[in-house]
Amino acid sequence: MGGTHENGQQETCAGFHVAPARPEDAAALAALQAASWRAAYRGAVPDDALGGRLDAEMAAKWDPLPPGAIVLWEAAVPLGFVRVVRRQGWPYIDNLHVRPDRRGRGLGRPLMRAAADAVAAEGRLWLTVLAENRGARRFYARCGGWEGAPLHETLLGARVAARPVLWPRLVPLMRLPRAGSENADARVEPA
């Protein structure tokens, strides 16, 4: 299964693999998250929060490598990652990021599948998404997520409107494609 990018580029899950993050991946994940936030959150948080201080915050967040991260790789290049932790008693997607230049090509689906695989025994999952991030909200709806009532969170020092997205059953996520490789079934425990 693959996605078609708005400029007609097609990508499939074949040729990619997922694997638990390793300590040596931390700097790349910090840079990927910073780039993703700059692309997605401009206008949602103060511009100065997305400047150079963001790089320092991400470097501190990812050093040392926190547990629960799963990386989507194409050869030796990280294309995205998902991190599952516990929040309010449920497995929670704390981060889901795809390189901004590769968004819209179906690469988030194998990451969502990897997150679901990691928490399959618990049978449920949730996350929060910025209310104004309509692209992400559409993606989560296509993945079978149910949006909850609006709430507010603090992101980079700014109060932002968000929506919880719930998967009280993982069936929709288990239908998503896995990244194709010998590591397609890699599992990590939520932090």
Q: What is the makeup of the main sheet?
A: 4 strands, antiparallel
**Mean pLDDT reading:** 87
CATH architect. name = 3-Layer(aba) Sandwich
Shape: globular
Helix content: 25-40%
- How many domains? The number is 1
- Poorly predicted runs of 5 or more residues: 1-12, 181-191
Fraction of residues in β-strands = 25-35%
For this structure, what is the CATH class?
A: Alpha Beta
CATH topology: Aminopeptidase
Helical segment tally?
5
Radius of gyration based on Cα positions: 16 Å
Element string (H = helix, E = strand):
EEEHHEEEHEHEEEH
- The CATH superfamily turns out to be Gcn5-related N-acetyltransferase (GNAT)
Distance between the termini: 30 Å
Helix/strand/pairing category: alpha+beta
Number of strands: 10
> Reading side by side through the largest sheet, how are the strands ordered?
3-4-5-6
Structure, described:
It is built from five helices and ten strands; from the N terminus they run E-E-E-H-H-E-E-E-H-E-H-E-E-E-H. By secondary structure, the protein is an alpha+beta fold. It has one domain: Gcn5-related N-acetyltransferase (GNAT) (Aminopeptidase, 3-Layer(aba) Sandwich), CATH 3.40.630. Strand 5 and strand 6 form a beta hairpin. The N terminus and C terminus are likely disordered.
